[in-house]
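Lecture 7, part B: from sequences to assemblies.

Below are the input chains for today's worked example.
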Amino acid sequence: MDNIENNEDSIKKETENLKDDIKKSEKRLEEIQAECNHPESKIKNISNGGGEIAKWRLVCTTCGLVTGHPSPSALDEFMHK
Ligand SMILES: [Zn+2]
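Predicted structure of the full complex, as structure tokens:
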């Protein structure tokens, strides 16, 4: 009984630590992306997969930030490359 509670405690503690780390990492990522000049973007599918419809966006090749939508002609060219 004690072991199970201890296990749940440690899981809870670790998940909270991980969530905290994720938050800090996301904040740092935003800071880095804000400093980037986005010198070059490429068309990339940013959908999560799993049957989700493809989401084509312009993504900075340096920091990975979505910088805009590709024009229909640019997307067409990309798809037929
Ligand atoms: Zn960038």
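Note for the exam: The mean pLDDT is 93. Keep this in mind when comparing with the next example.
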